[in-house]
Amino acid sequence: MLNKLALSLEPNAKITDQFLHYEGTLKIISENAYCTSCQGIVVQFNKMFPKINIVLIDATKI
Fold first, then answer.
1. By CB neighbour count within 10 A (0-12 exposed, 13-18 middle, 19+ buried), where does 22 fall?
2. What separation in angstroms does the CA of 47 have from each of 28, 42, 62?
3. Are 46 and 54 in contact (CB under 8 A)?
4. CA of 19: how far to CAs of 15, 35, 36, 47, 52, in Å?
5. For helices 2-9 and 36-48, what crossing angle results, to 10°?
6. SS3 per-residue string spanning 1-62
7. Could you read off the pLDDT of 4-61 as tens digits, one per residue?
8. 17: Cβ–Cβ under 8 A, 6 or more apart, which residues?
9. Where are the domains of the chain?
10. Distances in Å between the alpha carbon of 7 and those of 37, 49, 56, 61?
11. How far apart are CA 60 and CA 15, in angstroms?
12. Cα 36-38-58 angle, rounded to 5 deg
């Protein structure tokens, strides 16, 4: 999901790029705990888009 969002915001982005002109909050809710791999994707996205605050809520039954 975050990969798709990153590509829709910046189609030619590289993992080392940083984009400071995007701002906001993204809340992601999961019924399960986030795995290490998913947490790594969040960290990468946060480095690319540091002004987008990501709120993770997990282990929640909706």
1. middle
2. 17, 9, 30
3. yes
4. 11, 26, 24, 9, 10
5. 20
6. CHHHHHHHHCCCCCCCCCCCCCCEEEEEECCCCCCHHHHHHHHHHHHHCCCEEEEEECCCCC
7. 999 999 999 998 999 999 999 999 999 988 999 999 999 999 999 999 999 999 887 6
8. 10, 48
9. 1-9+24-62
10. 19, 12, 21, 30
11. 30
12. 90
pLDDT band at residue 2 under the 50/70/90 scheme? very high
